[in-house]
Amino acid sequence: MKHKEAILASSKRIAPYVHKTPVLRSQGINAICETNLFFKCENFQKMGAFKMRGATNAILQLTEAQRSRGVVTHSSGNFAQALSLAAKSLGVTAYIVMPENAPQVKKDAVLGYDGKITICQATLAAREATSAQIAKETGATFVHPSNDIDVIYGNATAGLEFLEEQPDLEVVIAPVGGGGLLAGTALAIHYFGKDCIAIGGEPSAVDDAYRSLQSGKIEINTSTNTIADGLRTHLGDINFPILQKYVDKIICVDEVAILEAMKLIYQRLKIVVEPSSAVALAVVLQNKNAFKNKQVGVLLSGGNVDLQKLPF
């Protein structure tokens, strides 16, 4: 029962520092999808994404001595912002390694939360090497965006809240990129849901998680050609076994469905989400028969979209 207690403890631990996000419904989207949809709106979370939960939980688990030396991560986007804001709210220094091609809007957001940015080449090897160098020089603790158990438990609190508000959900769909949100969601559903399954949504263009569950080993992508920029990363050795054990399946969706889902959310729910969030609804749109007349939870992971580059 280690996971169950850890999720409950995480929920209590981070409560003073994060928002309890709303669950929205749309009769219009229900009619289009022929099912009963509930949207958990993590786009309303502090810094605009679920990652605030995991980042906060990870920092709160550090000792005072560790906190005094700061935290370091590498991220081109949401986790960079999440760790910066979580660190700022807890009086901890955050060192953020960002690839040179990271959007300026994301860099500005990190700086706005007092994160200390180091720019590196846009390769995973460069990101990891730069992070390791900073950790060595400063004594900062490395916090991985998705492959860290305290981050995963923090992320799981969104699923826990979802089920507390909608205990009769039969399915919860979450997007999968690095695997931290889906792993946490799947754990929450296993321990707190009743007759509920976790499904991952993934762009067909970056279907590494889908292939990983098929092959039984972590697969990676050679291309990153998807509008869902938050889902271009691959799984890690901590979250992958959790996905193998607790996720029912991963369903891949095409770019057209992602775009259609994103438009629907803007038009019908009247809220701003980033493309990665829309992937979960795209799963339902592209597979209506599989979800017909079910109670389906859709986890909207974040709303940090560059308004200069809206895809429609």
TrEMBL record:
Instruction: Answer yes or no on keyword NADP.
Output: no
Q: Which InterPro entries does the UniProt record give?
A: TrpB-like_PALP (IPR001926), TrpB-like_PALP_sf (IPR036052)
Q: Does the keyword Metal-binding apply?
A: no
- Membrane-spanning ranges: none
Q: Which UniProt keywords apply?
A: Pyridoxal phosphate
What Pfam families does the entry give? PALP
| Record protein name field | Pyridoxal-phosphate dependent enzyme
Give residue ranges for domain Tryptophan synthase beta chain-like PALP. Answer: 15-302
Q: Which cofactor does it need?
A: pyridoxal 5'-phosphate
